[in-house]
């Protein structure tokens, strides 16, 4: 599943799932633009890719800000070329009982997790339309599939990502562009480690008795980004170790 000659954008690529996705896509030959609000982290990811012989640049960008997205896209095109692969990974999470969620917290969650993918996709899809080829992979969440206590705003934002995925898949199905989403299950990332979760205890409840690793998600993304997945669109590639079956 070579990605030679493709240019990929990975948002939220400074750490965790995004970092793994960027590394795996680069290992398969893609030139990768690592976008992240944390420029220092994005630079570390890009440096890791370069040290392994791949092509990558780091771009500091707020994926939920239209002007920042346009600037990031301009730099990416200038340095790497038109974008053919987009991985909408940037996002936040939070744990808060429903009745305590304020409007600001709700709006921030929706703004980053749902508006962000909208803005980035809107900016980059013209490259794919012009090329007659494109791959859009949205990182959603198993929390939107199963529901999750104290995460109503997070689950709602990721549910919106799933709905947008399906709508765009139909809209662009005859344009050579596929749009799919990957809902990770319980993945051991820095973001999860920062939450009020006992990672080892939760992992023991999973069917595989372990947490997933960022690379598990990255390889699913790489498949969906490939030519081999050219007849796969609007689909859910759950990467959850059996946590949710559909």
Give your account of this protein's structure.
This protein is of the alpha/beta class and 246 residues long. The chain has one domain (7-229): NAD(P)-binding Rossmann-like Domain (Rossmann fold, 3-Layer(aba) Sandwich), CATH 3.40.50.720. 46% of the residues lie in helices and 13% in strands. It has nine helices and six strands; from the N terminus they run βαβαβαβαβααβααα. The chain has helices at 16-27, 39-51, 66-79, 103-131, 142-146, 152-171, 190-193, 199-203, 214-225; strands at residues 7-11, 31-36, 55-60, 85-88, 134-139, 177-182. A six-stranded parallel β-sheet has the order 3-2-1-4-5-6, with helices on both faces. β4, α4 and β5 (134-139) form a beta-alpha-beta unit. α1 (16-27) crosses α9 (214-225) and α4 packs parallel to α6 (152-171). The protein starts with 6 loop residues before the first strand and ends in a 21-residue tail after the last helix. The mean pLDDT is 96.
